[in-house]
Amino acid sequence: MKDMNQCPICGGSNFERREVTETFEYKGQSLEYPNYVVYACGSCGEEIVDSKCLKESDRKIRDFYRQVDGLLTL
Fold first, then answer.
1. Is 8 within a domain?
2. Strand (E) or helix (H) holding 35
3. How many CA atoms lie within 13 A of 47 on its CB side?
4. CB-hemisphere CA count at 13 Å for 39?
5. Which of 2, 8, 12, 55 is most exposed, with minimal Cβ within 10 Å?
6. Residue 7 forms part of a structural domain
7. Residue 9 lies inside a defined structural domain of this protein
8. What pLDDT does residue 15 have?
9. Can you tell me whether residue 60 is helix, strand or coil?
10. Of residues 70 and 8, more confidently modeled
11. Model pTM score
């Protein structure tokens, strides 16, 4: 995201960084992921996940899916 102060959806300037606990659910089980970074627009309500956070969380989420499926994790 080029301009972290402006919403890419509505163009509003009320766009702020938030750290939330995101919950991922898979086959009836859940994984809580703290410090998940999103950018939220106070004008339209859109939330966009930080690209760095998305990359960092990817492995943990895939391991969670494997664990639920009874497969080996990396």
1. no
2. strand 29-41
3. 9
4. 20
5. 2
6. no
7. no
8. 82
9. helix
10. 70
11. 0.70
Task: Compute CA distances 45 → 35, 42, 54, whole Å.
Answer: 19, 6, 20
Is residue 18 classed as helix, strand or coil in its secondary structure?
strand
Quick one: pLDDT at residue 1?
A: 47
Amino acid at 5: N
3: buried, middle or exposed (CB in 10 Å: 19+, 13-18, 0-12)?
exposed
- Number of domains composing the chain: 1
Give domain status of residue 21, yes or no: yes
Q: Is the dihedral of CA 64, 68, 69, 74 positive or negative?
A: positive
Q: What is the CATH number of the domain that holds 26?
A: 3.10.20.860
pLDDT confidence of residue 9: 86
- Cβ atoms of residues 24 and 30 within 8 Å: yes
Segments forming the whole domain that contains residue 44: 15-69
Which residues are within 8 A (CB) of 18 and not within 5 positions of it... i.e. 6 or more apart? 37, 38, 39, 40, 47
The label of the residue with tokens 């990396």 reads 74
